[in-house]
Recover the amino acids of this structure.
């Protein structure tokens, strides 16, 4: 695949100048960033105005699950725009109804009612509101290694450092340690020990916070940006049992893990567990038009049969976004995108990453499934000291910055967070593209190796 345009550095410079003059970027010190001016994208690749092409191992922000510019989804958006560009959320609209039906067709259990939002953070906000109103309680428990969004409730639930500046301590959020054997908070040596001790810690947290005050437990089914730590067998079922025992609403955040990313339609399927509420966004329409939502179980939905739900959004179920979701889900079904993610994850990505770990001392652990993987980069495999300190910036983060630069030099755009690189290409990536990315990672990891001891 080659860029379908003639390189135009002058236009690229103009795009970047306008960006620097007027765009305020998220999560950034504005004077310290240098955004790449992107000229186009297609499939698993994008390119700049200089004509440099990159294999996107980030899927945007882990949302282009069917790649960029899929012609069937583009056509569906165009058709919907010609028919009905927008309409208020209080009406029944074909694209909205069909999107909800298709989503409910793939959600586990009885998660058959769909409340649409504009993205994942709003989905979390409304899921927590539903849980609080359903239970009449206020506290919400969430894990430290997590990210749930940038709005007020979502950022307070978040466990990573992006919470710190906005943590007002009044949202009723209580954090706990979820299982992560490689850096166990419970001094565990096996997955079984980690699971049992993490569940006991969670139950102790519920006990000391007061079960009658806890409305919900919110977990990413597989934590995404925080490190792609697949929970041990039995953990999510154990959380489900705790929620049932104490009448707590179980909320699974599938914003990043959902819609094929783990090789299942939803990551909860790997664990045979059904939450009371499930949030989604990103992969629902490959990020082509902003869309998120909450899939709601029957018992929660019944709370609002005769009682108005006090929440809503002007663009809830926007027709363009829903038309994109309908087309995306149909593409995923017709082209077996979920099956592709599972197959290549098991036969190419997983084995390839484990092969890299054997060759590179900077790789402390490989973990993941489907098209959802992380390499934990370390200074020492023996001590497991991270390659860069927790939440490092500036000079302290230089080893990871050098690794990232090496990836880009080799035509690979990496997903880097703290001391990890995540391997999250589109779920319909080809075998050849996956191997191309692995080869680029192999070369770039020699740079990381230079910082080991």
């Amino acid at each position: 695949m080659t860029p379908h345009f003639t390189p135009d550095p002058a236009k690229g410079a103009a795009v970047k100048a306008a960006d620097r003059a007027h765009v305020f970027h998220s999560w950034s010190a504005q004077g310290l960033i240098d955004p790449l001016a992107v000229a186009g994208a297609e499939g698993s690749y994008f390119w700049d105005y200089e004509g440099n092409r990159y294999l996107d191992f980030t899927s945007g922000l882990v949302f282009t699950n069917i790649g960029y510019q899929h012609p069937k989804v583009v056509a569906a958006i165009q058709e919907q725009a010609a028919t009905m560009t927008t309409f208020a959320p209080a009406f029944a609209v074909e694209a909205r109804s069909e999107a909800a039906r298709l989503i409910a067709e793939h959600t586990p259990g009885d998660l058959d009612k769909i409340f649409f939002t504009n993205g994942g953070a709003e989905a979390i906000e409304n899921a927590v509101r539903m849980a609080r109103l359903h239970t009449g309680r206020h506290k919400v428990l969430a894990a430290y290694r997590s990210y749930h969004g940038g709005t007020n409730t979502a950022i307070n639930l978040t466990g990573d450092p992006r919470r710190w500046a906005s943590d007002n301590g009044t949202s009723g959020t209580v954090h706990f340690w979820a299982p992560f054997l490689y850096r166990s908070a419970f001094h565990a040596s096996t997955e079984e020990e980690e699971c049992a001790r993490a569940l006991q810690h969670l139950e102790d947290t519920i006990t000391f916070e007061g079960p009658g005050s806890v409305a919900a437990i919110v977990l990413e089914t597989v934590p995404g940006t925080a490190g792609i730590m697949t929970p041990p067998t039995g953990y999510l079922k154990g959380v489900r049992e705790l929620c049932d025992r104490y009448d707590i609403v179980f909320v699974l955040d599938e914003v990043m893990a959902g819609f094929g990313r783990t090789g299942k339609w939803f990551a909860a399927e790997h664990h045979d567990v059904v939450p009371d509420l499930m949030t989604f966004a990103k992969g629902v329409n490959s990020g082509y038009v902003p869309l998120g939502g909450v899939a709601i179980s029957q018992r929660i939905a019944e709370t609002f049969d005769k009682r108005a739900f006090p929440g809503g959004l002007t663009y809830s179920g926007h027709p363009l976004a829903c038309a994109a979701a309908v087309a995306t889900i149909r593409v995923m079904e017709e082209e077996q995108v979920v099956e592709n993610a599972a197959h290549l994850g098991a036969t190419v990505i997983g084995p390839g990453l484990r092969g890299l770990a054997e060759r590179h001392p900077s790789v402390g652990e490989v973990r993941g499934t489907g098209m959802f993987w992380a390499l934990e980069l370390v200074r020492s495999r023996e001590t497991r000291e991270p390659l860069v300190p927790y939440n490092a910036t500036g000079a302290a983060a230089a080893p990871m910055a050098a690794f990232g630069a090496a990836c880009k030099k080799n035509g690979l755009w990496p997903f880097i967070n703290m001391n990890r690189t995540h391997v999250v290409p589109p779920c319909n990536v080809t075998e050849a593209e996956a191997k191309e990315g692995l080869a680029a990672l192999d070369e770039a990891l020699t740079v990381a190796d230079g910082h080991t001891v």
Summary: The first strand starts at residue 38 and ends at 42.
